[in-house]
Design goal:
Blueprint: E1 5-8, E2 24-33, E3 36-44, E4 52-56, E5 69-70, E6 77-84, E7 86-94, E8 98-100, E9 108-109, E10 114-119, H1 124-130, H2 144-151, E11 161-163, E12 166-168, E13 174-175, E14 179-185, E15 191-197, E16 202-206, E17 208-209, E18 221-227, E19 236-242, E20 247-250, E21 258-261, E22 264-268, E23 278-285, E24 295-301, E25 324-328, H3 348-357, E26 365-369, H4 375-379, H5 392-408, E27 418-423, H6 425-436, E28 443-447, H7 461-468, E29 474-480, H8 489-502, E30 510-515, H9 522-528, H10 530-537
């Protein structure tokens, strides 16, 4: 199988200085655009040599295939290669048998200390400091069931996974005990690549045509099967399509589950299980009147949620309906190990799986609404904090997003089963939404809430509560106490006292928690997010 693969670790060419056995070397790269680089290798070998060759992962370590040419000074040898964005190991070969690590490149990998050339997307310093790169999984033969699906009749009309007429009765990627298979539908005239990402490395594989009746770029169905035993457990993936002039990244529409990395959706690599929830994606949802920027919507479906996409061998419930919580800053809510801001995500999907499987909470659906660059405007009190009609973001959730979710998924649509949750400004908009729309949102969980903001008339959340009075909604409020502003703890305490004075009852429809010493960040919210989830969905 003629499939190319690369490993991408850094956005920079990793070169430095070092002393090496009387030899000198260097590598220079010129970005040609379209993921292509013109790379010049230079090596000045020690004396007593007859030939100099370049060998590496780009030529299968052939020690004689790439002969370097003598430079004008008569001492150095050079050669040029056009390489794709990626990770390449290399060495210089003198007299056909003496292998030299590049003395001017301090980055070495593997037991043979191969020099590492990286053209990629993370910072060079990160790659240097981490010192970690995962091994690239090897390519395998397609499993029999994939071959059957490819070679079988082209069926239409069934709701199982279908890619341009090829029907698969299983979600993607397809995982067996020993293999992982990825299949993509490429636009006509485009090459297709699989981009595998881990916290420290990226792998790239060019996907091969699967439709044997069509060849080259005319083939729309592309795929690859990789060795599961070598596969990093923390990997995610995207597809990339290129026509030579531009490259576009795409989330696999047939992924069993997606998640987020660095604020963007990516495919998750997990095996379907009745014990694991999964996340679906609605890309670039916008309001009908274009009053809000479009945004991605992440939908967490709990363990046991079954639909037409569920593998038939899994005994999954396809009838039950579920309560729903709407999450603000939705791209930050999942299992990203580092973003945002180095704190990692809330890991709500993992924590929810644990709470549901242990029977501590009822199964629920969580809808993560991604934020936009105008987050403060959207989450703030608006022109009039006392009016829901004037708040564009709340109207979008109530009148566009919620009806869509209720239509596409098996929800319990009533207010007693619908809640909002968020932190900081996300906590503020959750509080405001519940107070103004109790007929839509029957509860709200507000973490580290930013109660200091005012509307255009200088009215804030205190005036909102005083104006609205006791509402039939349940409220969870918390804060830390760390940092210069104590994570807003004084304002949260004051709001709790006001709510109690108006009629909310702790232990019934009000809960307040103070996390001593906790700061205002995702790490702190992740550590205690089980509390609001228990408040919203705990079993009586």
């Amino acid at each position: 199988m003629n499939v190319h693969r690369i490993q991408i670790v850094s956005a920079m060419l990793l070169v430095g200085s070092a002393v090496g056995q009387g030899a000198l070397g260097s590598v220079k790269a010129v970005d040609l655009g379209g993921d292509q680089f013109l790379v010049t290798f230079t090596f000045e070998p020690p004396a007593d040599m007859n030939s100099v060759n370049l060998a590496g992962t780009f030529n299968h370590w052939n020690p004689t295939a790439l002969r370097m040419q003598a430079a004008e000074n008569g001492k150095a040898y050079t050669t040029e290669l056009t390489l794709r964005r990626g990770r390449y190991e290399y060495k210089f070969v003198v007299n056909g048998s003496e292998w030299f690590t590049d003395p001017d490149n301090p980055i070495r990998v593997g037991p043979n200390e191969n020099s590492l050339l990286v053209l990629g997307e993370l910072s060079a310093q990160t790659a240097i400091e981490s010192g970690r790169t995962a091994n690239m999984p090897g390519q395998m033969e397609h499993p029999p069931e994939i071959k059957t699906a490819i070679d079988g009749p082209r069926l239409c009309g069934n709701k199982s996974t279908r890619i341009f007429g090829v029907q698969f009765h299983f979600p993607m990627p397809y995982i067996t005990d020993s293999t992982i298979t990825f299949i993509a539908k490429a636009p006509h005239g485009h090459s297709a690549w699989l981009d595998i990402m881990t916290p420290s490395s990226r792998f790239g594989y060019e996907l091969e045509p699967l439709d044997k009746a069509v060849t080259g770029l005319d083939s729309l169905i592309r795929g690859i099967t990789l060795d599961r035993k070598e596969f990093p457990s923390d990997a995610t993936y995207l597809f990339k399509y290129s026509n030579g002039e531009s490259t576009k990244s795409s989330v696999d529409p047939n992924a069993w589950s997606i998640t987020s990395r660095a604020g963007q959706p990516v495919g998750a690599i997990i095996e379907p299980s009745v014990k694991a929830g999964r996340i679906r994606l609605i890309e670039n949802l916008h309001s009908p009147d274009q009053s809000l920027r479009s945004r991605d919507i992440y939908i967490y479906l709990p363990p046991g949620y079954g639909d037409t996409y569920t593998p038939s061998q899994l005994a999954i419930d396809k009838e039950s309906r579920y309560p729903v919580v709407y999450l603000h800053d939705g791209q930050n809510c999942w299992d990203d190990p580092s973003e945002p801001f180095g704190h990692g995500g809330w890991a709500i999907n993992l924590i929810a799986d644990k709470l549901i499987n242990s029977g501590e909470v009822e199964p629920f659906i969580a809808v993560g609404i991604a934020n936009t660059p105008v987050r403060l405007k959207e989450y703030g009190p608006g022109e009039d904090i006392l009016s829901a009609d004037s708040h564009v973001y709340l109207q979008f959730i109530a009148k566009t997003l919620k009806p869509l979710i209720d239509e596409k998924y098996r929800t319990l649509p009533g207010p007693e089963h619908t809640s909002m949750m968020g932190s900081s400004m996300g906590g503020a908009i959750s509080f405001q939404g519940a107070m103004l729309m109790p007929d839509v949102f029957g509860s709200a969980a507000c973490l580290s809430t930013a109660f200091m903001f005012k509307d255009a008339n200088d009215k804030g959340y205190t005036e909102l509560v005083e104006h609205r009075g006791k509402q039939p909604v349940s409220l969870y409020l918390d804060s830390g106490t760390g940092g210069r502003h104590q994570d807003g703890a004084p304002a949260t305490r004051a709001m709790v006292e006001l709510l109690k004075a108006i009629g909310w009852q702790p232990g019934f429809d009000l809960e307040h928690f103070e996390d001593e010493g906790a700061d205002h960040n995702e790490r702190a919210w992740r550590a205690r997010v089980d509390r609001p989830l228990r408040f919203l969905f705990g079993k009586d």
